[in-house]
Fold this protein.
Amino acid sequence: MQHLCPEEPLTPSEPLISIPGAGESHCCLLHQPPRGPLHLRDCRVVRELQGILGQTKLTLPRVFIGGRYIGGAEEIRQLHEIGQLKKFVEGLPAAESGVCEMCGGYGFILCHECNGSHKCYSEKGDTIGFRSCTDCNENGLIRCPSCSAVAL
């Protein structure tokens, strides 16, 4: 169940999840045990994860602690139930209480350029009309500048 990943210093657990409201229902599962800072990773890293783990079919979330692959939602649940998850998170800093005031803890906010529509009006060159916004994702969201821990 534990596969080594590229060496990293001991860091808080980092589940890989899709954007809030559009992903796996297991995502909130990993926010319960244990209490510690969690970092959201965008689902665009799935291909990189497939290469690291040598698997082509993956479900999210996936958890790494200190550069070591721990598992997905089911593995985390099993480790928690048998009391083994505690040994993986010992020594990690405790979670800060409170929720980001800007995004409410979701890690994403509406795009300021298109107001969440993912469309912008453009008058460049010969093309006049609406185009896809290049600042946000397909849902009209951008990473929260206040609390997002991931740089793309």
User: Anything to note?
Assistant: Residues 108-143 form one domain. The chain is about 15% helix and 20% strand. The longest helix spans residues 73-81. Strands lie at 3-4, 14-15, 62-65, 68-72, 108-110, 119-122, 129-132, 141-143.
